[in-house]
Amino acid sequence: MPFTTRRTLLRTAAALPLAASMTDRVFAQSADKAVPAAAPKAPVKDVTRTLAHYLVTAKYDDLPENVRKEGVRTLLNWVGVAIGGSHHQTVDIAVSALQPFSGPPQASLFGRKERFDIMNAAFINGVSSHIFDYDDTHLKTIIHPAGPVASAILAYSEMQPVSGKDFLNALVLGVETECRIGNAVYPNHYDVGWHITGTAGVFGSAAAIGKLMNLNEQQMVWAIGLAASQPVGLRESFGSMNKSFNPGRAAANGIFAAVLAAKNYTSSDQMLEAKRGWANTISTKQDYNEITGDLGKRYEAALNTYKPFACGIVMHPAIDAAIQLRNENKLTADQIDHVDLKVHPLVLELTGKTAPHDGLESKFSIYHAVAVAIVEGAGGEKQFSDRAATDPTIVALRGKVKPVVTPGITPAQVDMTIVTKDGRTLHKYIQHAIGSVEVPMTDKQLETKFADLAEGVIPADQARKVMDLCWKVETLENAGDIARTAATA
Amino acid sequence: MPFTTRRTLLRTAAALPLAASMTDRVFAQSADKAVPAAAPKAPVKDVTRTLAHYLVTAKYDDLPENVRKEGVRTLLNWVGVAIGGSHHQTVDIAVSALQPFSGPPQASLFGRKERFDIMNAAFINGVSSHIFDYDDTHLKTIIHPAGPVASAILAYSEMQPVSGKDFLNALVLGVETECRIGNAVYPNHYDVGWHITGTAGVFGSAAAIGKLMNLNEQQMVWAIGLAASQPVGLRESFGSMNKSFNPGRAAANGIFAAVLAAKNYTSSDQMLEAKRGWANTISTKQDYNEITGDLGKRYEAALNTYKPFACGIVMHPAIDAAIQLRNENKLTADQIDHVDLKVHPLVLELTGKTAPHDGLESKFSIYHAVAVAIVEGAGGEKQFSDRAATDPTIVALRGKVKPVVTPGITPAQVDMTIVTKDGRTLHKYIQHAIGSVEVPMTDKQLETKFADLAEGVIPADQARKVMDLCWKVETLENAGDIARTAATA
């Protein structure tokens, strides 16, 4: 390991995704129940064309209010994490490696001053947004939907003005496309080893960019075909910079597919469903109804979720409980005798580190997570930093956290009892943690997360401006203003 | 089909690959026998590292003479087909689609005047070289090895001077890498639907570029990992422009992987062999000994073959026989009474069109192939053009061609008897056609193929210069001269 010390590697937010992904899988089941029963299976033909037809005809005005709203929240959350990760070592490396090859300075890098052509900019912003594994999650597939799509269309909108309405429509359609295609092959496709955010994500980017470029139906069919030819990402990359590479490269590949298709670069007309097409080649499961069923009626894009805490979601219920008890009782560390918590076995399996040495290790410590939540009332990147992991108060308190595996507790749940030195017994049961489909983060909480991530990267007033642009995206004359405002001068 | 008429699509050399691929499979078996028995299986660990170690330590001086020679022939053949395809509609589209996004004019397009950054140039030259499906073939895997590798390193050599020796070493190592990785997963990987030229090709490009960039072992491990994250191509794309997209994008993706790894963008250390790494995710067969066995001793790069005729290889024995009989007997069309030929069933199954209407259809007509070979003494692109397909002499002669499926004739063989009007019976049995591993094309034949492809694209004296540079590549101070000389002013 000649160039990178072990410590540097650990700082790359390396191992976090493992825990996140394993537990996301468990959570996926409960989210699944929220979806209406599937319609009868569509015949296995014209899958690609049906999807393409929908994409080229779907209008902003067709979007239900809740879908628009979730699209806006998806955007705001994503821009925040992209700014937050923008000065990570991983991004510095990507910028320096690609600068000699970039085309015209068409698009901004979030939180940075460099400008790249739209494909390279989309790649780098996509990397940026996934480094902390703190972006959005479609729990049914564990796809992080915004990365491949928002990276692509924000870059495109800087080069070619796009109205806010068209932008939001493209965002929703891109997310819809990748999540539906993901549904069609999940879980088999993910289980065997594909990083589904990158493999399905290419379609999201191609669909969204194709929409903004006003491709006709045949061109959209070809864009989907060229996207299918460029899947990105293997799960073995988790724990390295290669993980955040995947949504970024998916974004770039989708643009590549769409710009070629726009000039009538042809592909197959049945790339998704053909015998040696995408779904049959890349997965042992193919449920095409997930792609073509109820298009324009059922919206996967409405099911997007956002992480309130910068760690695998297996610890989220405990952090949620700890923060609630702290705030309700104005608790401080010195008041605590000990903390009992009843947890699912996965919690100790994945996050059982009793004495984490640094920020990254602390993401795998339920002891640290509860302690820092009580001391600081939060669970953001700062709470999983080297500073927090070695803070004497937090280190002392984590020794008083007593998790016990308890039958009947699901991974989504926790049962916490804080016993104070003065003899009080404070209890909190969490059925669904904040950030789940059932208990979504509030807009206010998304703003706090955004501001927290932007702190130290861009000034607070600039962060405020970017948030305002995101909230009012539907009224913008040019959605490219968002990316321009999120860059540094 | 609003923008492209059926006729235009047919002109894209669309359906040819189907026939080529199916028959290549049959031919693969005989080639297989030429390979020494495999050593005992290597343990499934350190596959990626073992390969990376080999790549960073292998020197030009280590290459056996026959491997060097085949590397030079691989280069010359590839440059010829890349020039030949350079003004196809597919390339025009790619150039016009990507021009707005290209970086600095670092590298030439073969046979054209535009210059692009090395990744986009490699993509376009890779497309160019595969359009006629007339490039080289590693028969054991049906990989077209030069496309992903030569596209990448020729572009790179223009940006960054590379000695001819280093260039040839990188070419061989790139071909070796992709063919060995292809061997490890073939045939299962191909059978399920992957276009192995694109999926394995990315590794070839990454390895060759990584070698030219002098990556250290760890960086080469990461380059392989990032390449593994970007497989390209599905067989369903065969018959569309998307097929030639695949080697081009593989070349670009390999460069992308290597330039990131060169700056220490990390990946997994076991991306090829890990449980959720490349081989397990993308194939049901994994034979890692094909990757790490006898490195530096057994050379897949020495097994490369070149097509003498611009059509699927199932017709090659018949064309070979017809040309030999024609030349030996100075035959002209008017002398022929009829042509009997004993063939394998695949010949009529794949190439049974009795009355092809145009150039592309003629690639699927054994009747046309034999007739044009007798009339023109060749089987290049010109012999499968619209002109040739409608030439009255050839049309008349094809009606006298009588193929008969005959037990005992393999797809590699043909038994031809030409009966002349003056009563002569001229016989030729082909055991292995020209262009096979057993009867390789001569250097002279490669030159004729090259000149034929270059005609009408670049002047004959320029083609001569490019060929000379290819033959003497090992003595060049800067291999970038080849690409520069192959471009138009």
Automatic annotation (TrEMBL), chains A, B:
Signal among keywords: yes
Entry keyword annotation includes Signal: yes
UniProt family annotation: Belongs to the PrpD family.
Residue intervals of the MmgE/PrpD C-terminal domain: 309-472
Keywords tagged on the record: Signal
Signal peptide (residue range): 1-28
Species for this entry: Afipia felis ATCC 53690
SUPFAM superfamilies tied to this protein: 2-methylcitrate dehydratase PrpD
InterPro entries named in the record: MmgE/PrpD_sf (IPR036148), MmgE/PrpD_sf_1 (IPR042183), MmgE/PrpD_sf_2 (IPR042188), MmgE_PrpD (IPR005656), MmgE_PrpD_C (IPR045337), MmgE_PrpD_N (IPR045336), TAT_signal (IPR006311)
Lineage of the organism: Bacteria, Pseudomonadati, Pseudomonadota, Alphaproteobacteria, Hyphomicrobiales
Pfam families (alphabetical): MmgE_PrpD_C, MmgE_PrpD_N
Gene3D superfamilies: 2-methylcitrate dehydratase PrpD
Protein name according to UniProt: MmgE/PrpD family protein
